[in-house]
Sequence to fold (328 residues):
Amino acid sequence: MARESAGTGERSADFEELRPTLFAVAYQILGSVAEAEDAVQETWLRYATARVEPDSLRAYLCTIVTRLSIDVLRSARVRRETYVGPWFPEPLPTGTGGSGPWNGNGTADPMRAVELADSVSMAVLVLLERLSPLERAVFVLHDVFGFDYARISGIVGRTEGACRQLRSRARRHVDAGRPRFEADRRKRSQLADRFLSALRDGDVEALETFLAADVAALNDGGGIAGGTGGTYGARRTARLLANAVSPLLALGAGLRRRELNGQPGALVLDRDGGVLAAWVLEIHDGQIQTLRSVTNPEKLAHLGPVGDLRATTRERNRARRDARRDTD
Fold:
């Protein structure tokens, strides 16, 4: 059943209340902040011009944003198949009291906010990237947002039985690869602070103590800026980080702590405040298991003005050469 259309002002207020939830649905299907925001905006345009008022506005809007996101994801798959190096989702600022499209995911329940934040971890979204668009949408709607199969069936245009099968396949895949995170968010935040402090000091020995023996340091540069990283072990990773970051800090760059995708992280900034990289630290058993960085400038614009990593790296390398000449 539907009712007569409400006024534009009333509709706008109702829509804004649900905007964080709509963004959360779209982002978890797409892994892109910009594409999720576009899907939400298109959802608003369709609702604003609809002639009737749905009985369940949340279900109605989630139906629109999900279908839009599935269509976008299908076209994006072609581009992502030829992507250079590791593909990570666009870094998403999270955390209580934060600003931006996430904004607590539209929930007033602190425990639910934590659960939703963990669901957008980069590691989980990378796993979801391997699902079909329909599997991903059904999984997100059922396991993250609690829609029942009857409602999901109407959203994705498949029978309830088909939706159950889609969700079951997605659940098996996610469970098989789901990473373990430090359960105590305060502990992981404190470890991240100590790790970044050691990095600012260039203390290789201290850095090594924070890294798991088989730590992976992976980078999404999209073939534009930065390499791909790898699994080098704790000692070599500590040295690589110190050698890469310490000279940048000496040139006026900075590290700003941020929570990204529900995990402790940081932004690497140039001397003018331009974003050079976003880091996410995946912590378990008191050590960093994976350090994911994003240096593709096309994935950083929503975090602030984007710096020129290539130019900054060239400047760093010149400074290194000058320092070596001075000591010869």
